Amino acid sequence: MTRAEKTQLIEDLAVQLKESEYFYITDSSALSVENVNKLRRQFFENGIQMKVVKNTLMRKALESLPEEKNIGGLYDSLKGPTSILFTEVANAPAKILKEFRKTHEKPVLKAAYIDTDVFIGDDQIGPLSELKSKEDLLGDVIGLLQSPAKNVLSALQSGSQTLAGLVKALEERGADN
Length: 177
What we know:
With 177 residues, this protein is α+β, with helices and mostly antiparallel strands. The protein has 2 domains: 3-131, CATH 3.30.70.1730; 132-177. Helix content is 54%, strand content 16%. It has 6 helices and 5 strands. The chain has helices spanning 3-19, 33-45, 55-63, 92-100, 125-129, 134-176, and strands spanning 22-27, 49-53, 82-87, 108-114, 117-120. A 5-stranded antiparallel beta sheet has the order 2-3-1-4-5. A hairpin with a 2-residue loop joins strand 4 (108-114) and strand 5 (117-120). Helix 1 (3-19) crosses helix 3 (55-63). It is elongated and about 100 Å long. It comes from Membranihabitans marinus. One of its GO terms (molecular function) is large ribosomal subunit rRNA binding. Forms part of the ribosomal stalk, playing a central role in the interaction of the ribosome with GTP-bound translation factors.
């Protein structure tokens, strides 16, 4: 690979890292070609892009990112074979990795970058797979916001029925007198 090709690769990777809110760094070495293809297919079907990169190129791409990205903790995970998983949904790669690991030893999670937070180590697959997506969180918030309104409406509706019953009872009493 020529110097110009490496420079272009670093720039492309830096742009992708800068635009990505979520990415995972894994080691999928020692998987058979069949298993790698099976894993890539699962990633593809879930909108996850998998790239195998050299650690030095990845390090240079990370170094070009702004400080507010808070990626400092990722440098130690750039040892050994490395593949990057880019995703739009924070927990999607972790769910696939967790399921795949039920029958395979690898891929091993080296690190994950989730919206300026860095998760280091393979033991983070469980917690990462349980993260709620933005859509799930928005649904929870909307449900919580709707709950008080629903309670007020049901109280008003039951109150109107009670009030109507009271008025009817008073009318009947008045008619009897």
